[in-house]
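Q: Is it fine to ask for two folds in a single conversation?
A: Yes, each is treated on its own. Send the first.
Q: Here.
A: Result:
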Amino acid sequence: MTPTEPLRQPEYLATQQYVDGRNLGARSNLHDRYGTAPVPFRVWEAQLVTWFDGAEVLEVGTGPGRFWTTDAVPRSTHLTVTDLSPGMVRQATTDLAPAGYASVCGVVCDAQSLPFDAARFDLLVANHMLYHVPDPPRALAEFRRVLRPGGTALIATNAPGHMRQLNEVIAEVLGHAPSGLNGVFGIDNGELMLRDHFGGISWHSFTNPLVVDDADDLAAYAGSLPPASTASPSQRADLSSAFRDRVAAEGGRMRIDTRTGAFVCTGRPS
């Protein structure tokens, strides 16, 4: 089994990796605390599309629902959030209940088989989740099916090379890193898959190098994913030590480059 293979297995994702928000929180924390972009990713991404009052919006792979905390989304939105993990859906709906949306509905489901009627939604959001799906084109066919003819899909992803410096440290200590996942559906191959389902596709890059001065936060990020999440205590200690050494070697601030952004997809293919 490759280091990233568990991250594409539905049972592992729902019952271990994303049983609750802790692993995702460790990764979000690194970006939120040490990102250098003028605004957080979710604010930047929400500004890529036009929102209108009363829209029916679906998020596939919502996690804890953090995307919807931005004020860039009108509170007149009728929001349906879905995830493979019951724990994530429970957390998202609980956290979003007081957010002021017109309605919030949570559904546990597989992105490859969405339990919604055709042409149900005005906008679909899928953030950093298609590389977890066993069959991304099948999920994209479902995205297109549940969108109305004039609807838009907002699909965020990464590319190989994302978090390169952090992955280098993991590989030095453990022999491999979780970097292969970004090749499943990423910047470099995602548009080709999208062309089968959407007529208009535009890519938007989010520039946000991280500058990290706390090795413990780097170790927490690494420990939220295989291979570090399954490493022995001694290996985890070695990894923490390696991050401390790397931060010190870079003058107390380790730079980590990101390769991330979002596709905005509209229309049907000709």
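Q: Second one now.
A: Result:
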Amino acid sequence: MLYNYGIQQLKMREVMESAISLMGHFLSKLFYKNEGNIRNQYCQETISNVKWRISLASLLTEMSKALYPFQDRKGTKLKYSKWAVVVRDYLPSIVTRLPIKPYIEISEVKFQVERGLAEILVPDHVSVYNTGSKIRTTTIHNIKGETLDSVMVVSSLDKKSKGGHWEDWFNQSPTTSDEHEHKRYGYVAMSRPKHLLVLATPKLRAIDRAFLRG
């Protein structure tokens, strides 16, 4: 049972990572001349990877409310040709939420449905993954202002993640604006739960464990 649960969580993580990468590719192709660091979800050079990922996750949340579940107001399933019109109409809203200014004007942005998909029903074609789990997985940015019964905050393995590693959240002497911002991430995340806080970190040295216990 625990093994199956672990597999489900692993698959969910893979789905989320895929969604964020695809969103980054989508924005890069439409608004940033197909530039960006592919290894970091097509992150643009003028923004940190962590801020880029937060923006992608936030955009995915907002877009899902407007563009999902691929049907009109009457509940009729949409074909790709019709859904593409809905997406085009939503593009100006996406532009207002972009983390950095687009390289091209919205009037110059063009995209089209892949050949052969126009008459296919979107919900019948898209594979929807559902684990049945009630565990919510989201970003620190998206739970700002919320109060939850319990929270697990997961640290990045990489100390160079620019705000995603636990040491960034507990910085005792921040000096730069980024360091202050990263420390604020930690405060936001770890002040959400009412009853239980779990902090998941890479393997700790004895000095680090003592520091956290303190």
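Q: Anything structural to flag on that second result?
A: Two points. The beta strands are 148-154, 193-200. The chain has two domains: 2-125, 141-213.
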